[in-house]
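Quick illustration, no need to memorize.
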Amino acid sequence: MLIQTLVQIIGYLISVIMVLVIVQFIVSLLVAFNVVSFHNQYVAAIYRAINVLLDPLLTPIRRVLPDTGAIDFSPLALIVVLNIINIILGSLI
């Protein structure tokens, strides 16, 4: 019972992290295509907050992945790793 509860909590945390990665991607696209600007204090604050939360997870992945120039594949790799962890935890129940 306790293990099932812990696995569900970890599953929810994984879902929240995946949503943050997707929001970070969307905000960066909106800024790149000049739909929104970092001059808007709310956009800048949201982007900084998400980066502060995700950088500890993305930095080790960026060290392992080769440098591809302008394209950063570390968010995609993080989502894949989180999905693998979620599948493993789901099989434990």
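The chain has one domain: 2-92.
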